Amino acid sequence: MTDQVPPPPQDEEEENEVIRAARERQQQREAAEATEAADKDAAKGKRGWKTAAAAGLGIGSAAVIAALLYANRGKIK
Hints:
By secondary structure, this protein is mainly α. The chain folds into two domains: 14-46; 48-77. 66% of the residues lie in helices and 0% in strands. The protein contains two helices and no strands. It has helices at 17-44, 49-71. The longest helix is centred in the middle third of the chain and has 28 residues, at 17-44. Keywords: Membrane, Transmembrane, Transmembrane helix.
């Protein structure tokens, strides 16, 4: 005869993929709302197109440098 052991108690808060997806979607929604609020606050600061252009130039320059380093990674030794 085999001993039958009851299964271990399951936590009610056990997370499956559906619950995880819902939680992640909620976090994304909250992050989007926070970003929109921050954008509205930034608009009140009257940052103009020059600030956006400077940020774009900085990001673009970093991307070009990263691409060149990646392309030349075999040549540098």
